[in-house]
UniProtKB/TrEMBL annotation:
A motif (Histidine triad motif) lies at residues 97-101. PROSITE patterns: HIT_2. It holds the Pfam family HIT. This is Histidine triad nucleotide-binding protein. GO terms for molecular function: catalytic activity. Residues 4-114 form the HIT domain. The active site is at residue 99.
Length: 114
């Protein structure tokens, strides 16, 4: 399998890790679109949200727990953050290993007008 995120999990590709436990890994995006841009992935390869099934739902909950922890760790839990999952080509999924973007550090998108 030629999955860049699996290689990061294996340690064969470097990443700036910010969180890790038995099931989840989080690291800084190499092309950030916000002051805080962290990718949160399950260590198990799952292609996309459409492939989540059975026991995988526990990994989705674990990703959300990790996001909550990371937001506090990064100092953005109170000011706010966005958690985004792109599923499929038309949604902008570029790496076919399910992942979430934690975005924060400034007002984002439509939030700028509110």
């Amino acid at each position: 399998m030629d999955c860049i995120f699996c290689k990061i999990v294996e340690g064969t590709v470097p990443a700036k890790k910010v969180y890790e436990n038995e099931h989840v890994l989080a690291f800084r995006d190499i092309e950030p679109i916000a002051p805080v841009h962290i990718l949160i992935i399950p260590k198990k390869h799952i292609e996309s949200m459409n492939a989540v099934d059975g026991d995988d739902w526990g990994l989705i909950a674990e990703i959300h727990r990790a996001a909550q922890h990371i937001a506090k760790q990064e100092g953005v839990a109170e000011s706010g953050y966005r958690l985004v999952n792109n599923c499929g080509r038309d949604a902008g999924q570029a790496v076919y290993h399910i992942h979430y973007h934690l975005l924060a550090g400034e007002k984002l998108g439509w939030a700028k007008t509110n």
